[in-house]
């Protein structure tokens, strides 16, 4: 399994232009941060804690999530498009392991990027902005905020697997990603408007930060609403992820590869 | 359990109720090169896809070295190497990276030495560190063969491997396959829709048509008993006068240009020429054709040549 994952990570590196993603997103982030520091006057400068948590929301919650979806979906769809899936599926390796290695590698790649990005985010926040008045330890906060994000990645990457195997299209994955991300909030709102219980719907359960004791993290997330409790939300995420994955894996197992 | 490298029993496959492979059975022996022959759409690729587990058969069994592909998939697949249709590779990676990538999919571990050996075998050493997107089709075909051989399979399956190869490439392919079969006892199954190609490359030919088994025969058998049988086309100063001469040797057909004897012994040709000239009929042309070509076209329902 580890050699399969090595293969997947290697292909991801070449296929998804990881180098350029790192250079561009990190470059932009650094430029924006430094510009803020230079051009905003002292009074308008954000504190280190608010800069940290805003950066994390934006990068972990949007850029990395989105990129993780692309990495995982395209690791499936591109093999189908290029026809290389045949070369994989004729090896003495079960289809379950093949797809499994793609899902796990997509997750690992996203995690590795998360580590790199969040180290930079932390350093930029504490070095460029004022950390003296922080209400919590910022290193712990940064790490915790990442932890709350991980189950969300699991859900979206399982979604990627099912989209990759059912539709064989990265475009569909991207569109669906935006639909779920934006419509999710609207649907939840609608549920609440109609006085229905939205707790079993996936979307409100994806903002795990609301359950945090860490005020920096939970304050930022409060605006998004939230579900019934950490364990409840984690269970909902697990159930949704499992269902998506099972459908995706079943489909891949049964399908004729043409 | 059979000791044959590959046994196919009563294989059937339908797509949307249309039967594509219909109760197909055949067996392959060790160390021989088999031509898998059939016209376009006969079901060659579909059969090959089932042999390598890309398609699930509706019915029937595929036994590889005694292992049932359905119940012992990994065991069965570890002795098969294949290129199905085009040799698709990872274009952004180099030839070496592609080879290493595929080598990581096998246990026990495949050494770098084995990779180098195969790269030399298919004569790709010069370009192996270039990205595959810079390769010509012929180079990709060769890389395809090399990666299919990584795990020393006892069966090599190639789907129309001469596609896109120039005459030199085809000659080289033929010599690779010969070496594999003769020196390493690899059983080779090559699909093609050209009889001439199968004749040049293979020991035995397996013909299918509309997904059904038609005929399997050995090229050697043919060289012993059938080599002498040819079809002959004659063009003379006067075709009309030649007909009575030829009629003594077999059934005669006439068209605008040639008079055709559909089957005679090759040895009889000089006698015919002598007899004709004795009667003052001179021959411009005698064309000899393999009777196999006709057989193939007849078997597969094509037009007679
Ligand atoms: N996925 C599919 N769905 C429906 N029909 C298919 C599918 N794959 C193949 N067929 C049909 O099966 C028949 C056999 O196709 P196949 O590709 O096996 O032929 P072939 O012998 O390889 O032909 P060629 O010499 O052209 O490569 C064709 O009529 C084709 O249309
Ligand atoms: Mg074909």
UniProtKB/TrEMBL annotation, chain A:
Keywords: Membrane, Transmembrane, Transmembrane helix. The keyword Transferase does not apply. Coiled coil: none annotated. It comes from the Bacteria. The chain crosses the membrane at residues 20-40, 52-72, 103-129, 141-167, 174-194, 230-252. This is ABC transporter permease.
TrEMBL record, chain B:
Gene3D superfamilies: P-loop containing nucleotide triphosphate hydrolases. It comes from the Bacteria. Residues 6-235 form the ABC transporter domain. This is ABC transporter ATP-binding protein. InterPro entries: AAA+_ATPase, ABC_transporter-like_ATP-bd, ABC_transporter-like_CS, P-loop_NTPase. GO terms for molecular function: ATP binding; ATP hydrolysis activity. Belongs to the ABC transporter superfamily. Keywords: ATP-binding, Nucleotide-binding, Transport.
């Amino acid at each position: 399994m580890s050699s399969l994952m090595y293969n997947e990570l290697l292909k991801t590196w070449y296929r998804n232009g990881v180098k350029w993603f790192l250079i561009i997103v990190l470059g932009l982030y650094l430029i924006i941060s430094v510009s803020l520091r230079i051009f905003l006057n002292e009074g308008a400068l954000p504190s280190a804690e608010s800069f940290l948590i805003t950066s994390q929301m934006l990068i972990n919650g949007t850029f990395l999530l989105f990129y993780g979806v692309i990495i995982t979906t395209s690791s499936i769809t591109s093999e189908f498009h290029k026809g290389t899936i045949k070369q994989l599926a004729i090896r003495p390796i079960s289809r379950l392991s093949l797809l499994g290695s793609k899902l796990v590698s997509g997750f690992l790649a996203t995690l590795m990027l998360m580590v790199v990005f969040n180290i930079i985010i932390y350093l930029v926040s504490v070095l460029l902005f004022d950390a003296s008045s922080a209400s919590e330890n910022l290193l712990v906060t940064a790490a915790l905020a990442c932890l709350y994000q991980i189950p969300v990645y699991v859900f979206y990457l399982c979604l990627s697997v099912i989209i990759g195997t059912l539709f064989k299209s990265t475009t569909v994955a991207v569109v669906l990603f935006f639909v779920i991300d934006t419509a999710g909030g609207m649907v939840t709102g609608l549920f609440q408007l109609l006085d229905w219980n939205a707790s079993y719907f996936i979307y409100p359960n994806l903002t795990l930060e609301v359950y945090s004791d860490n005020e920096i993290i939970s304050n930022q997330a409060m605006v998004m609403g939230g579900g019934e409790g950490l364990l409840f939300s984690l269970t909902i995420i697990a159930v949704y992820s499992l269902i998506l994955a099972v459908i995706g894996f079943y489909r891949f197992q049964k399908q004729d590869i043409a | 359990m059979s000791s044959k490298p590959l046994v196919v029993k009563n294989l059937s496959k339908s797509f949307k109720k249309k039967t594509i492979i219909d109760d197909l059975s055949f067996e392959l022996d060790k160390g021989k090169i088999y031509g898998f022959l059939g016209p376009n759409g006969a079901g060659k690729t579909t059969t090959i896809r089932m042999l390598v587990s890309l398609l699930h058969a509706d019915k029937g069994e595929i036994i590889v070295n005694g292992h049932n592909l359905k119940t012992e998939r990994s065991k069965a697949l570890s002795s098969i190497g294949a290129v199905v249709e085009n040799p698709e590779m990872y274009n952004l990676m180099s030839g070496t990276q592609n080879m290493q990538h595929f080598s990581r999919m096998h246990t026990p571990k495949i050494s770098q030495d084995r990779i180098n050996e195969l790269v030399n075998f298919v004569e790709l050493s010069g370009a192996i560190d270039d990205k595959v997107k810079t390769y010509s089709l012929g180079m990709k075909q060769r890389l395809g063969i090399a990666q299919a051989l990584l795990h020393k399979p006892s069966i090599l399956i190639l789907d129309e491997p001469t596609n896109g190869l120039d005459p030199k490439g085809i000659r080289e392919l033929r010599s690779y396959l010969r070496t594999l079969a003769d020196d390493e006892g690899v059983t080779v199954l090559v699909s093609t829709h050209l009889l001439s190609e199968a004749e040049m490359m293979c020991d035995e030919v397996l013909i299918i048509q509309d997904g059904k088994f038609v005929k399997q025969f050995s090229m050697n058998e043919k060289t012993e008993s059938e080599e002498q049988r040819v079809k002959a086309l004659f063009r003379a100063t006067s075709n009309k006068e030649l007909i009575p001469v030829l009629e003594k040797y077999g059934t005669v057909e006439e068209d605008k240009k040639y008079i055709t004897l559909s089957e005679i012994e090759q040895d009889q040709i000089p006698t015919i020429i002598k007899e004709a000239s004795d009667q003052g009929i001179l021959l411009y042309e005698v064309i000899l054709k393999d009777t196999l070509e006709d057989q193939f076209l007849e078997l597969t329902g094509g037009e007679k040549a």
